[in-house]
Amino acid sequence: MKSNSRNLYLIPYIIWIGLFVVTPILLVLYYSFFDIEGHFTIDNYKKFFTPVYLKMIFNSFWYAFLITLFSLIIAYPTAYLLTKTKHKQLWLLLIILPSWINLLLKAYAFIGIFGTYGAANSFLEVMGIGSKQLLFTDFSFIFVSVYIFLPFMILPIFNALDELNPSLIDASNDLGASPWTTFRRVIFPLTLDGVKSGCQVVFIPALSLFMLTRLIAGNRVITLGTAIEQHFLVTQDWGMGSTIAVFLIIAMVLIMVLTGKRKRGIL
Amino acid sequence: MTNNTIIRFEQVTKQYDDDPPVLKEVSFEIERGKFYTLLGPSGCGKTTILRLIAGFVEPSLGKVIINGKVVNDVPANKRQVNTVFQDYALFPHLNVFENVAFGLRIKKMKNNEVDQKVKEALRFVNLEGYENREIREMSGGQRQRVAIARAIVNEPEVILLDEPLSALDLKLRTEMQYELRELQRRLGITFIFVTHDQEEALAMSDEIFVLNNGKIEQSGTPTDIYDEPINRFVADFIGESNIVPGVMIKDLSVQFAGKTFDCVDGGLNPNEAVEIVIRPEDLEITKPDLGKLRVRVDTQLFRGVHYEISCYDQDGNEWLVHSTKKARVGEEIGLHFDPEAIHVMRHGETEEEFDKRLEAYEEGNYEK
Ligand SMILES: Nc1ncnc2c1ncn2[C@@H]1O[C@H](COP(=O)(O)OP(=O)(O)O)[C@@H](O)[C@H]1O
Ligand SMILES: [Mg+2]
């Protein structure tokens, strides 16, 4: 009786998950076995393992890795300083705020800033360095991506640091550890879960970035995300697009499993 | 200051931001090898004193002196002091062995030496064989021992313990009181123990500092403080007591509850208004005519070892009696007490003034 009525509550969720999670994945899987004329085939998968696509896979992973790395390098100290400020929740909100603005809007803003006559180049001229090609470079692509993903990296790290019992830091000092040793032996290991979730929420979307690659990197950077977009919208080769998507889904699941949270801590 | 002094506070004031000071010009001395207790209600500044000694915070004014050196600016990791934290603060990502080894590893001690010292420390706290346990697998009492082992393994000169027993249940707590005291004797290290439980303080300490509102109200051995509370706060906080207003007629004679009694105090001004303390266990129930006071029983509670009887005299003063004899509610009884049971407290007298008066009074007596 009891478990029956409890199961009733689950029905809306099951319908939701079925409609919006399971069905799309199955559809993508289904489409990946058809060529552009609608014949059943496994050629898509064969094509996927040719140098063209392997290069794309490598590119995607490499740029996602760089974006994650730089986000982490900037986010960790930022989050740490945030937890030390007096109105930390307010500061956090201010940092999170830009992530609510539409991604395209931010991309266009950067086109303006990095353009030949943009603010960045005016600044370089004033500094006597002279104007440079900024837009459509790896630098600008990674810079803008890091800017966009930064809040998602800061948030989990901030939470992990904020939850850290301050008396553990006292205890470490008390036992003779310098601030740096305390960071290495206590603070970092205990906020590793936050770092991991931060890396997950940056790396996985970064893997399939596509609009930025065109707007900021000028299609010089072709990632799997760009390829999916091109196949669905330009070449109309849904089969190939789906194959790449299947690969991305598998990659994401693998990343989630590998960086998944281990049980730790008291209680 | 004697050679034996290890820690000294000189007029230490601690203030956070613009809040009123948490500690107000606190001065005291701690001697080597003794068991000290800081006793006081929650929020009175006990933890702050420990944090000042450990070096987690700096005094706003005054000096903290360890081993003859002013250490106001010395960071915590450079002080020969270890702390057992109120919440134990064990590192959840390290197992029992590595928690205890933490301080030794910082000192870059060789592995086999670390191994030996950690095992020895764990043996000291009866946790042999628990080396590879995770902290979350340990019970509250065991965690507390790990925290103690983590402190003693560094062989500090002073160990600070911040209410280490408050999270334990009563039985374990009593057990740990014995163990801690025994441990301190075996190690011969100075312990500074914080508690808000007066029974714990009386049972464990060589010396007690009674704190209230950022000030030391009284310091002394447990018997000193119990027998000679200096003011109403201390009398109330340490054990239960009957406190009534009175007048010091002359030396050795005091008036309260409408009668004059012999007492053992002196050195006060004639006819000075004072407060009288009599401990409930010093009151004896007798027949109404035989007692020094005549009271009516209001309520009676059985407390296991004794009855706690609340009575009122004609003036409306409440008298709490601890007695193994039973009384009847509503019955009129007599209360008997010895002159030694009467303790006279002067209004607003500080500890220094109290000591001075006692000295002067005794000297005066010798001259006579
Ligand atoms: N970091 C701090 N900032 C501001 N006030 C504090 C801080 N630490 C302690 N206090 C205040 O100091 C007072 C004494 O605290 P504490 O020493 O912890 O008391 P106890 O340990 O005796 O309960 C309390 O009123 C507390 O609110
Ligand atoms: Mg405290």
TrEMBL record, chain A:
Topological type in the membrane: Multi-pass membrane protein
Keyword Membrane: yes
Keyword Transmembrane applies: yes
Subcellular location: Cell membrane
Keywords assigned: Cell membrane, Membrane, Transmembrane, Transmembrane helix, Transport
Transmembrane region(s): 7-31, 61-83, 90-119, 139-158, 201-218, 238-258
InterPro entries associated with the record: MetI-like, MetI-like_sf
Domain of life: Bacteria
ABC transmembrane type-1 domain boundaries: 57-259
Protein family: Belongs to the binding-protein-dependent transport system permease family. CysTW subfamily.
Protein name: ABC transporter permease
From TrEMBL, chain B:
Catalysed transformations (reactions): ATP + H2O + polyamine-[polyamine-binding protein]Side 1 = ADP + phosphate + polyamineSide 2 + [polyamine-binding protein]Side 1
Alphabetic keyword roster: ATP-binding, Cell membrane, Membrane, Nucleotide-binding, Translocase, Transport
Enzyme class: translocase
Domain ABC transporter: 7-238
Catalytic activity, EC: 7.6.2.11
Molecular function as annotated in GO: ATP binding
Subunit structure and binding partners: The complex is composed of two ATP-binding proteins (PotA), two transmembrane proteins (PotB and PotC) and a solute-binding protein (PotD).
Biological role: Part of the ABC transporter complex PotABCD involved in spermidine/putrescine import. Responsible for energy coupling to the transport system.
Family membership: Belongs to the ABC transporter superfamily. Spermidine/putrescine importer (TC 3.A.1.11.1) family.
Protein name per its UniProtKB record: Spermidine/putrescine import ATP-binding protein PotA
Species: Cytobacillus citreus
Protein encoded by which gene: potA
